[in-house]
Specification:
about 300 residues; mainly alpha; Na+/H+ antiporter like fold; about 0% strand; globular
Length: about 300
């Protein structure tokens, strides 16, 4: 119960601080820097060395990429039917194919399943970033530039300079030679800042103005992100006999709302940032209810 209260209080606090102008408009950038450079790498060092690696652990990786790929296909048909431009299509691909696996996902997993299963969630999160930094960037470039070309060098640079990914690699490799048991209390303290600060940052960035004209795009994006994507992952788990915590967390992470980072990418590549921000905001609110439904479905089937 405390975790649910924490989620509500932190997001509402961010929204109130923003509306009352009690905080700098760019304050979320500093908060995100702490999360990306210190807190999320600490989560990797806290949990990844304890992961029992099995073939089932490939499931979160495959499922996360499939969600992104099918988002491209789904939005291609939808955009053609509606006659949308390549820019609008890319915006919807970016806002629909990538889950908020850390900022919202980690707190909700802690609330529903407990912190011990964050090790599986980290795999989903890092895979999501890989997909966003490759497939997501390609979609953004095609929709936001005249040439529509993206270089492998550009994608590689984004990957090797992303702190959480470096933390993930460091935790997996260094734990083979170093015992981090002594440092666990230190990692605990840093990792504990992820949930409250991430949720507060989300609250600072939520925007809802001008939503009525974009209801068709917003609702279609949320249909895919909050319902179709987790349903697809659930069917894959049943089809291939993936069970237990790996199946539960992978499906639950697939049901998370749109990742906040998609707004940053949309702005960088001149996509429809207004639409992206609205999808992020509404998907977070609606996602609190749909994830509770998915939790019951998952427990019923697994």
């Amino acid at each position: 119960m405390v975790n649910f209260v924490l989620i509500g209080v932190c997001i509402l606090a961010g929204m109130v601080f923003k509306e009352t102008k009690s905080i700098h408009p760019d304050a979320h950038k500093g908060i995100n820097t702490w999360i990306l450079y210190l807190a999320l790498p600490a989560v990797s060092f806290k949990y990844l060395p304890k992961v029992n690696w099995t073939l089932d652990m490939l499931f979160p990786i495959v499922a996360t990429f499939l969600i992104a790929v099918f988002s491209v296909v789904f939005m291609l048909f939808y955009s053609k039917k509606k006659g949308y431009s390549r820019r609008s299509r890319s915006t919807m691909e970016l806002a629909s194919g990538y889950s908020n696996t850390s900022f919202i996902g980690f707190p909700l997993i802690s609330a529903f399943y407990g912190e011990s299963l964050l090790s599986i969630a980290i795999i989903c999160d890092q895979t999501m970033f890989l997909a966003l930094s490759t497939l997501g960037i390609i979609a953004a470039v095609k929709g936001g530039s005249k040439s529509g070309k993206v270089s492998a060098k550009f994608i590689l640079k984004r990957l090797i300079t992303f702190p959480p990914l470096l933390g993930c690699i460091g935790a997996l490799s260094l734990s083979q030679f170093i015992d981090f048991t002594v440092a666990e209390p230190f990692f605990d303290k840093l990792a504990a800042t992820v949930s409250p600060l991430a949720l507060f940052s989300v609250g600072l960035q939520l925007k809802f103005n001008g939503w009525k004209k974009l209801i068709p795009q917003i609702s279609t994006s949320m249909l895919y992100k909050l319902i179709l994507a987790p349903a697809m992952v659930l069917c894959l788990a049943l089809l291939f006999g993936i069970k237990g915590d790996v199946a539960k967390i992978t499906i639950f992470e697939a049901a998370m709302p749109t990742v906040v980072t998609s707004s940053i990418i949309a702005e960088q590549f001149r996509l429809n940032t207004k639409l992206t921000n609205l999808i992020i905001g509404f998907s977070i609110i609606v996602g609190f209810f749909t994830t509770a439904v998915w939790y019951e479905i998952i427990n019923l089937l697994f």
